[in-house]
């Protein structure tokens, strides 16, 4: 991978050297089960709770409110399915948006099979949810609303605070998937009007296979895993101790470096756009122009299909992404871009560049120049 320009950090990130160093003792020496009562277990338990305290501190949360999971998907499922099931005697209506990650959308589909009714809110052309649409969708039997903090495809940041304040007044449980926002935006759980918040380690240079759900006090959630009494009987299964320790270190590093990282990502976006403007190629940036995650740039190049661009970039040793799902070797149109009601030519030519700690501004410029060459070659050949 050393010769590849990797611009797909929204998909996953490399493990930071400090994270690997923090994890290693818990893969080799401190291997006890945190539930065991002997000395090895107690040592593991101490490390587990220290990691919980650290992550809670960085996201301004009560340590008791953090439930460790196997990642963002499980955290989303626990919030959506567990939160709805715990309240099914009170009501069976759930609200979400058309642009959520599939971890939320498919959890909502599961709830529909279980007898719930789900309202999927539309978004505008910038990918933003309107507070007015939330207000109109709420019913007396609404028990849960799940709206992501920042979109993983186009980066649009949602009006979480406005929506949360309204839902608090209505007494409706509010969950936000903050997987893409965590680590690039300051997340202050206790200051946000949310009841549940999902985060993941591998998006912030931590290990894969570990995440967490912030669960506010007195928020009803039914467990979706059954077994032991780990995580205060809310999530059964032996804790991924090394992963959790790595998650804590990744959170610490991300917090320390956040301002510098964000500044660098903004420089990269500006550099790429400057190259394309100078080259005179047609391009269209998707998502909100200002209310957007700093590390995501979703851009369309009319006349060059997404799949064609991705293949050409891959041949040039540049890793980028589409927001589309890959089915049987071909790309389906992104559900996010469809919900934004973009013109067909824009939606079918969208590419997501997402930045991380391994990137430089010069690399961003180099990738942009390659894109310009590809566009010029393919558009001219038509």
Automatic annotation (TrEMBL):
UniProt-listed PROSITE patterns: AA_TRANSFER_CLASS_5
Gene Ontology MF term list: cysteine desulfurase activity; iron-sulfur cluster binding; metal ion binding
Residue ranges of every copy of the Aminotransferase class V domain listed in the record: 6-364
EC assignment: 2.8.1.7
Reactions it catalyzes: (sulfur carrier)-H + L-cysteine = (sulfur carrier)-SH + L-alanine
Top EC group: transferase
Domain of life: Bacteria
Keywords noted in UniProt: Iron, Iron-sulfur, Metal-binding, Pyridoxal phosphate, Transferase
Family matches, as Pfam families: Aminotran_5 (PF00266)
Cofactor list: pyridoxal 5'-phosphate
Family in the record: Belongs to the class-V pyridoxal-phosphate-dependent aminotransferase family. NifS/IscS subfamily.
PANTHER family: CYSTEINE DESULFURASE, CYSTEINE DESULFURYLASE FAMILY MEMBER
Protein name, UniProt field: cysteine desulfurase
Species annotation: Brevibacillus agri
């Amino acid at each position: 991978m050393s010769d590849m320009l990797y611009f797909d950090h929204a998909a996953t990130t490399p493990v930071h050297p400090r994270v690997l160093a923090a994890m290693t003792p818990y893969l080799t020496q401190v291997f006890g089960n945190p539930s065991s009562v002997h000395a090895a277990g107690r040592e593991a338990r101490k490390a587990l709770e220290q990691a919980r305290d650290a992550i809670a501190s960085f996201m301004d949360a009560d340590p008791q409110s953090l439930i460790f999971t196997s990642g963002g998907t499980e955290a989303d499922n626990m919030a959506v399915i567990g939160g709805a099931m715990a309240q099914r005697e009170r009501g069976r209506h759930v609200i979400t948006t058309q642009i959520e990650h599939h971890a939320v959308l498919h959890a909502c589909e599961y709830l529909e099979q279980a007898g719930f009714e789900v309202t999927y809110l539309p978004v505008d052309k910038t990918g933003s949810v309107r507070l007015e649409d939330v207000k109109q969708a709420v019913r007396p039997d609404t028990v849960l609303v799940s709206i992501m903090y920042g979109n993983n495809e186009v980066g649009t940041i949602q009006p979480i605070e406005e929506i949360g304040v309204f839902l608090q007044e209505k007494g409706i449980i509010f969950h936000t998937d903050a997987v893409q926002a965590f680590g690039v935006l300051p997340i202050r759980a206790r200051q946000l009007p949310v009841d549940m918040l999902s985060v993941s380690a591998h998006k912030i240079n931590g290990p894969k296979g570990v995440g967490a759900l912030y669960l506010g006090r007195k928020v009803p959630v039914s467990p979706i895993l059954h077994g032991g009494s780990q995580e205060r009987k809310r999530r059964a299964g032996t804790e991924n101790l090394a992963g959790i320790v790595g998650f804590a270190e990744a959170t610490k590093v991300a917090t320390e470096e956040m301002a510098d990282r964000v500044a660098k990502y903004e420089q990269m976006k500006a550099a790429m756009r400057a190259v394309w403007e100078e080259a005179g190629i047609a391009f269209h940036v998707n998502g909100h122009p200002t209310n957007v995650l700093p590390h995501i740039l979703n851009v369309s190049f009319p006349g060059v299909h997404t799949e064609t661009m991705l293949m050409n970039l891959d041949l040039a040793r540049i890793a980028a992404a589409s927001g589309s799902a890959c089915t049987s070797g071909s790309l389906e149109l992104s559900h996010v871009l469809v919900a934004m009601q973009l013109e067909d030519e824009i939606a079918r030519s969208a590419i997501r560049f997402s930045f991380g700690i391994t990137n430089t501004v010069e690399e961003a410029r180099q990738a942009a120049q390659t894109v310009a060459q590809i566009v010029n070659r393919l558009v001219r050949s038509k």
